[in-house]
Every structure is written in C-alpha cells, then in structure tokens.
Fold this sequence. Notes:
mainly beta; five-stranded mixed β-sheet; 0% helix
Amino acid sequence: MAAKTELTGTVVSDKMAKSRVVAVERQVRDGLYGKAQRLTSTFMAHDEANETKTGDQVALAESRPLSRRKRWV
Length: 73
C-alpha cells in the first residue's frame, strides 16, 4: 500500500465549520528558460477541533474523501 502524501501550507480561510482552505506553495523550474516559478495550490482540509486560524502553518495528510472537495486532514 502506498504511503499517504503529506504537505505543508498556510491556512487561507477558516470561515467554515470543521473545514479549512490551505494554500500550498511550490517552486517549479520553467522547461524552456529555466526560471523558477512559484505556484500555489489550494486544498480543502478537515479540522474537527476548529483549532487553526487564518495564517497558521499546518501539515496536511491525505485521507479518504470526506466530501465532494475535501480529501485532506
């Protein structure tokens, strides 16, 4: 069985009950010119205890689908 993916990001929104939007930033090198680009992806994450606030650094772990868009804890 494959290992669960883990990511680190920043909480962008905490307006939902038990859910957070987390922005994960990564750097990708351009294929033609070689310049490093910063790309941001946003993920919906489950937070049962409602203990994170906007701006917090969090670690995300992959999980089973919890709703239509939520696949991270």
